[in-house]
Amino acid sequence: MASICVCARFRPLNLREDGEAICITRSDSQSFSIKVAEDLLCFIILLRDNDEKDEQYMFSFDKVFYEDSEQADVYEFLARPIVRDAVNSINGTIITYGQTGAGKTFTMEGANILEADNLKKGLLPRVVDELFDAINACGEATAYKIKLSMVEIYMERVRDLFDLSKDNIQIKEHKSHGILLSGVTEIPILDGEEALKVLCGGIANRAVGETQMNAGSSRSHCIYMFTIQKEVTNEKRVSSGKVVLVDLAGSEKVEKTGAEGKVLEEAKTINKSLSALGNVISALTSSQHAKSLHIPFRDSKLTRLLQDALGGSSQTALLCCCSPSLSNSSESVSTLRFGARAKHIKASSSRVMNSNSKEDIDRKQQEISALNDVKQQIAERILKKLREKLDGETVNLIGEEFVMEGLLLSDPTTSGSMITDDEEVNSSHESVITSQTIASWKEATQKLVNTILELRRENMIMKEECQVIKEENKVMRQVRKRIKAKLAQTKTLYLVMGLGFGVLASSCFSFVLLVS
Ligand code: ADP
Ligand code: MG
After folding, report:
1. Which residues form the Kinesin motor domain (predicted)?
2. Are 264 and 272 in contact (CB under 8 A)?
């Protein structure tokens, strides 16, 4: 199975870093080592209690774009396969992650969204070019419609960047279309030039704040969504695919930005949502071992919006943007660790379909949607039966769990209206699904209990080690005291002996004088 495509990109040193040491050493196009700066080093040395000064970390990704890489290289490797699949109705998401000033927006938009210079042109204008090239190359048998939406997540509110009056858009989950933004503005796009102008308007509406890191740094997550609707005219079959580009807000630590007041609040909200993203990634990687663990998609707007991308129904590419300078190496290491964790998320069956033929893709999509329909019906009937016995809130909670476990595809608060009396749904199926769900919850609880026990055990061991160290310190103090006392005794002895020898020598001298 393929996994999320994770790449790293190092921008060239900027003016502020001019003359600074570079912290990375290239191994090849996929691997490199990175040296950490003094402050982090001291911390590691303290922890390890040894004198290893040259601490290096090795990282390997699907591809590493070094300082001399070009925008076109990033597009070719990371974005082109996703855009091509979106034209064939397979959803794809491209995410840029990293500290402020690391090159996320430069990669996404280029120096300027309307920039025609091929060297600086970012992913967005290239996605637009590719989409219209693909559409124009199609015969008359297929008709395409492209719609564009643009939102930002600012202080945990989803704002429509094409209509600022919509400043709190709700995220919903649809039975067959997955995660949706309720009422978001969708602008139909007829050609590339128009798309860039529309994007330009949205970008101008982005909230920007000032920090010490980068005066133009964005304090919101920005999400660009292209929906490509495809209609095969003679078959009257309509399908659609999405390309979602996510330019995340900076991941740096609050202390380093010198943020205060409102900007500090913004930074805290950003860090919270990026932590939620990290937690979702951790849960997804762990759930591959523990089969079904709760994935906290609902902990932030960002993770809820990316639920399809991370949870399985979309192809995903993550670009970890970093500075190559030694002074930013600790932030770079934390960005790269985030990418390394994401690398371990395995794809669901729908994410690996890109290598198959169009017929395979269509067939698999039909199979998946039929299977999802059956699962949905069964889950809805279970919820309906539970509603007769339990209070509404409890049933909604169980419904949410069903959504998380992929048994129910729509929002449980609205699922009541979708419950049918279809008696054809086999009740034995229900009991199988129910017992499976209970078993998976039991398994997750058991895992938690084991973790707690393990933590307790480690805590005991650490306490014992602390006790031993205390004892050793006590003995050392006593030994030091004894040595001091001995030294003082020896000093006095030498003094007395010196005096004795002096008196003896002077007596001998007087005696010799008397005799002579
Ligand atoms: P971020 O969005 O991560 O906060 P930006 O993309 O705004 O950072 O980049 C900060 C600065 O660095 C910008 O002036 C940008 O032009 C420059 N920059 C970033 N990446 C590159 C690159 N690969 N080549 C040249 N300049 C870059
Ligand atoms: Mg930016």
Report:
1. 3-345
2. no
Ligand 1 pocket member 437 (CB < 6 A)? no
Q: 379 and 306 in one domain?
A: no
> Do the domain assignments include residue 171?
yes
The amino acid occupying position 127 is V
Q: Which domain holds residue 141?
A: 2-352
Does ligand 1 have an atom closer than 6 angstroms to the CB of 353? no
Q: Tell me whether residue 104 is annotated as binding.
A: yes
Look over the chain and give the mean of its residue pLDDT values, rounded to a whole number.
80
| pLDDT above 90 (res 389) | no
DSSP symbol at 210: -
* Ligand 1 and 90: CB distance under 6 A: no
Cβ contact 280:56 at 8 Å: no
What's the CA gap between 466 and 479, in Å, rounded?
20
User: Are 279 and 374 members of one domain?
Assistant: no
For residues 57 and 141, membership in a common domain is answered with: yes
d(CA 71, CA 119): 6
Look at ligand 1, atom 20, and give the residue with the nearest C-alpha. Answer: 103
Q: Whose CA is nearest to atom 9 of ligand 1?
A: 103
Least confident of 3-17, 115-129, 317-331, 371-385: 371-385
Closest listed ligand to the CA of 250: 1
Tell whether 98 is in a known binding site. yes
Taking the centre of ligand 1 as the mean of its atom positions, its distance from the CA of residue 147, in whole angstroms, is 28
Higher pLDDT, 454 or 87: 87
C-alpha of residue 103 to centroid of ligand 1, in Å: 4
Share of the chain above pLDDT 70, in %: 76
For residue 149, the cross-strand partners are: 225
For 90-143, what is each residue's pLDDT tens digit?
A: 889 999 999 999 999 999 999 888 877 889 999 999 999 999 998 888 877 888
Query: Structural domain tally of the chain?
Result: 2
- With respect to residue 409, please indicate whether it lies within any of the assigned structural domains: yes
With residues binned 3-state (H G I as helix, E B as strand, rest as coil), the percentages for the chain, rounded to 5, are 55, 20, 30
Q: Is 103 in the pocket of ligand 1 (CB under 6 A)?
A: yes
Three-state SS at 85:
helix
Tell me which of 220 and 454 has the higher pLDDT.
Answer: 220
CA–centroid distance, residue 324 to ligand 1 (Å):
12
Confidence (pLDDT) at 238:
83
Ligand 1 pocket test, pick from 11, 124, 222, 248 with the greatest ligand atom count within 8 Å of Cβ, gives 11
